[in-house]
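Table 4 source record.
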Amino acid sequence: MDQQQTSHGHPVSDRGARTVRKLTVVLALAVVVLIGGLAALPFLASRPRPAPDLVMANIGGEATALSSLRGKPVLVSFWSTSCGTCLTEMPALVALHQRYAPLGLRTFAVAMSHDRPETVASFARTRGLPFEVVLDESGAVARGFNDTQVTPTKFLIDGSGNIVRVYAGFTDFADLQRRIEGALGG
């Protein structure tokens, strides 16, 4: 006979049992692939790739081409005045910049296109931000950096012009500091 009884007393064919086993195997494989993909995220975030060749203008109107900064590490930090995490991390970003700028680090805090320029300028002025604050009113800078939408997102660029690490969400500042020191040669 080709039927079994379920715990509820309903007959189940061997074909139905095989289908359930196949679905279980497929779901288990999907879970393994998902876990493997999540485990690979740190690797993918740190796989070097060329930084976009674009020009950023700070709130004072001074323009800087990323390509002109070869030989120095560069940190590009996307943020927003409405991002609580960004505002919480700002003192750590300031401290990081103050520590490593004298050694050659360039830091750009890129305000997202939805931020009002006067709000960004006021924030930068009242907080005394020591790095370059960029208004990305058209969204071109965010598009150039993988169409960044999430804040905070930071891109660390080495002296060769390659993005060597991406931090999305809360930043691991200890890791960032180690990588900056490595990029500075010490």
